[in-house]
Design goal:
Elements lengths: L1 H4 L2 H37 L21 H15 L4 H11 L5 H13 L6 H11 L5 H14 L5 H4 L8 H13 L8
Helix pairs in contact: 3-5, 4-5, 5-6, 5-7, 6-7, 7-9
């Protein structure tokens, strides 16, 4: 056995195995450092706007509206981390946009997706306020968001929307009411 361990072939094989192991460890360490740098860079760069949304009510190009791009940035940001209080306040400002329905709608989506129980009443008040938004896109998102928030007390605001002249509002009101536990008759 001692003769086997002291042979040149065994020593060469052991040296090759050691070099291979060292290369694998080095590659692992390099990849770990590279991944940490990529994550750090991702958190420092502004979130790119995802412009795969339907055209807005106003007919404007979403890429040309800075407030919409900012709201989309918050969607991407809240996927990566919790929003700060200042960021949440800015999203509330964007959700009150009366000129561009996609901005307020996108901001409402951000607000209903964040996990901020201390902001729930404020978010519900904003959604109720947006039921009167002049932009139909924003109203539809407010209706859907109220259903997603699952606050049965807001159902009274949704019931009149079942008779809305806007088909999207009627359909989304029906879906929201179903989420709140209402049974709908088929017409």
């Amino acid at each position: 056995m001692v003769a086997f361990l002291s042979s040149r072939r065994t020593k060469g094989f052991a040296l090759a195995a050691f070099v291979l192991l060292a290369l694998l460890v080095g590659l692992f360490v390099f990849r770990t450092i590279q991944t940490k740098r990529e994550r750090a860079a991702l958190l420092q760069t502004p979130a790119p706007a995802d412009l795969s949304v339907p055209p807005p009510d106003s007919g404007e190009d979403p890429e040309q509206v800075p407030s919409f791009k900012e709201a989309m940035g918050y969607i991407n940001l809240c996927r990566r981390r919790s929003l700060t209080v200042a960021e949440i306040n800015r999203v509330f400002e964007l959700a009150r946009d009366r000129h561009y329905g996609l901005t307020s709608g996108t901001a409402m989506v951000v607000l209903t997706s964040i996990n901020a129980p201390d902001q729930r009443d404020r978010i519900l008040a904003l959604l109720c306020e947006n039921l009167k938004n002049p932009q139909s896109h924003a109203r539809v998102i407010a209706i859907g968001s109220l259903g997603n928030m699952k606050d049965e007390g807001k159902a009274a605001l949704l019931l009149p929307l079942l008779n809305s002249p806007n088909k999207n509002e009627r359909e989304h009101a029906e879906i929201a009411l179903k989420k709140l536990g209402y049974k709908m008759k088929k017409s």
